[in-house]
Amino acid sequence: MSGVSATGRVALVTGAARGLGAAAAVALAEVGASVVLCDIDQAEVEDQAARIRANGGSALALAHDITSLAEIKRLVAGTLAHYGRLDILVNNAGICPRISIEGMTEESYDRIMNTNLRSVFFLSREAGNAMKPTGWGRIINVSSTGGRTGGIFNATVYSASKAGIMSMTKAFARHFAPDNIIVNCIAPGTVNTRLMSNLPQASLDAAVSQVPLKRLAEPSEIAKVIVFLASDLASYMTGAILDVNGGAVMP
Ligand SMILES: NC(=O)c1ccc[n+]([C@@H]2O[C@H](COP(=O)([O-])OP(=O)(O)OC[C@H]3O[C@@H](n4cnc5c(N)ncnc54)[C@H](O)[C@@H]3O)[C@@H](O)[C@H]2O)c1
After folding, report:
1. CATH topology of domain 10-244
2. What pLDDT is recorded for position 2?
3. The 3-state secondary structure of 98-141, one letter per residue
4. Is the pLDDT of residue 37 over 80?
């Protein structure tokens, strides 16, 4: 992204093995950040980090399950042990199993909430505290239009988790403002990733028909907004929610 530099910064991206997280890691590396790619899928995240290194970037893969506070602590400690600092956190990892209200179990409810929302709370706290010493920091939370609409295609709990991310963004923005750590959120519409592959084609077509731009987003288009929020260009924004959805929802 021309005009933006993250040289010298260290960025941690969760869910970075594929999809939006991988695109964010690539885009941050392209503007000069050293990137820690975290994912529960060890083989895939190591491959993704290797691809960034092959293109001249600095990247470290760390396999952790971000539903666990103990693993989150190990993730932040591993980042600091390798790079000595942490400047940018992208809370991206998320799951969206399609389960109806009637079909939802306690186990699935907890898994969705713990992956999508609990992780954002504990990782923002742990990573934000690690950013304090430099007096500069960025936390970018990945929500969804579902957080605005309540979800349309069997995504009730997912969408509630994404609405929770919007709320937490505002609380953490206030909490870390005295440390010059800004906290913002993006709410993507429908993006062309594996997460959407569990949606029947007819539902996908219906979703696209509601988008004024009449297409899905590519992960790289979302990643550009993440890079902006991670940069000095966003210096006077905090607690904001950016809708990146082709016009599908205009709150
Ligand atoms: N694809 C879309 O249309 C869309 C739209 C709006 C928001 N989003 C959000 O964007 C984010 C990324 O989605 P995506 O489409 O790239 O999905 P994806 O399924 O392609 O990638 C998600 C990644 O998160 C990882 N992950 C899942 N659980 C984890 C855990 N417990 N610990 C660590 N890593 C874990 C997965 O292994 C995977 O690599 C999610 O938060 C999703 O809700 C996606």
Report:
1. Rossmann fold (3.40.50)
2. 65
3. CCCCCCCCHHHHHHHHHHHHHHHHHHHHHHHHHHHHHCCEEEEE
4. yes
